[in-house]
User: Fold O-fucosyltransferase family protein from Ilex paraguariensis.
Amino acid sequence: MCILKGCDEDLKFLEDGKEGKSNVMGSRGMMLLWILRGIMTLLLWTCVLRLLTMGEVWGPRLLKSWPSCFTTPDMFPEVNMSSVPPKVLPPKRVYKNNGYLMVSCNGGLNQMRAAICDMVAIARYLNVTLIVPELDKTSFWADTSEFNDIFDVDHFIASLRDEVRILKELPPRLKRRVELGRFYSLPPISWSDISYYSHQILPLIQKYKVVHLNKTDARLANNGLPLEIQKLRCKVNYSALRFTSQIEELGRKVVRILKQSGPFLVLHLRYEMDMLAFSGCTQGCNSAEVEELTKMRYAYPWWKEKVIDSDLKRKEGLCPLNPEETAVILSALGIDRNIQIYIAAGEIYGGGRRMASLVAAFPNLVRKETLLEPSDLRFFENHSSQMAALDYLVSLESDIFVPTYYGNMAKVVEGHRRYLGFKKTFQLDRKFLVDAIDQYHDHLLSWDEFSSIVKVAHADRLGSPKNRVVILDRPKEEDYFYANPQECLPALDESLRIT
Assistant:
């Protein structure tokens, strides 16, 4: 029995030993397998990287041809990928960074647009890093839109990388510094030349590392600047400041709808409540409306002019043309009554009552709200700057552009249309026009006489090439750079010799 028991124990011992040996061998096998897998993965990635760096670029082409999970094969026509040029970024400009510039824009969309162009030029000249500008959220419109809600921020940064370094936000350590109040903030002096920024602002940036310019409208001079600064302002305005794809696509849709019915005119009818309250222009308003507009003017302390003689201001040409006056002027200029007129504006003060005469004279009046479905504009509601961006795009594409007040949008659109080939843009002489209208209404001029003098007075006010007016001691009265960026316009010198 003992012998049998001992044999059983020996047999069990031998079986346990074989199992242990098998486990050891299995572990070694698994280890070798993982090593082989690692080597194969490394070799595979080496091959891929080699393919990507070869002169023959079929590797990237193959990868690009893989279908996206956001598209279906029938969404786009077949494209020969070899004919599609790759997106090439401009080379990054390398310079010694003198510090960081933060800016807070003020005003409406086009006021801020011009300011952004100025601030990029200033940052470039001072060799500093610009933080993506903050847009105004406290003005009359109280629009909460951020920069990237209106403009393509990535395109803005990338397209200017050969000029200036632009960041979406401060680096963490400097952000903390700002949170602790260790920076300098000021409104720069209006209409300053570039020497003001190099002598006054740059030393502050070098001392504090971060400077915040808290007002940016009209802070750079129109004239007397280096040519490279003027050209950079244009580069920002006409290339880097691209609206978001959502705004661009909707703008193209509106233009496409309009062009299906033939030529169209964009009328920037600046007869909105804020404009009338600010200017004090109340012609045609009833007593209740006059009181409402006056209360609004006093409610905004930064609107400095409070007591206003509306009739005197109108005679001086400082009021926007009202809808009734606009109807008469468009007819006198010979505008076809059947042309489509796109109203680029917010809500017209007085509504249908004030628009009646304009509708009677030009029945084909349209607005974005009448051309588009409510769902198209849902994301733009309560965002006046985004709505203004849409009007801006349509204004650029119109056959004729007519602003009834020479404000920021009128000026910036005029300049952009010049840049696009001196597209027909009426620059209405309001002082002359209101006097002529009054003479016509008082029967001192016949219709033919009235129409004739209006046409003659505006024959050379159609956005054609001309020099900016320079007034050395009165920069506010000079022609605005963004209305006539003559340094950036093609073949302008030859045109100027003729005018």
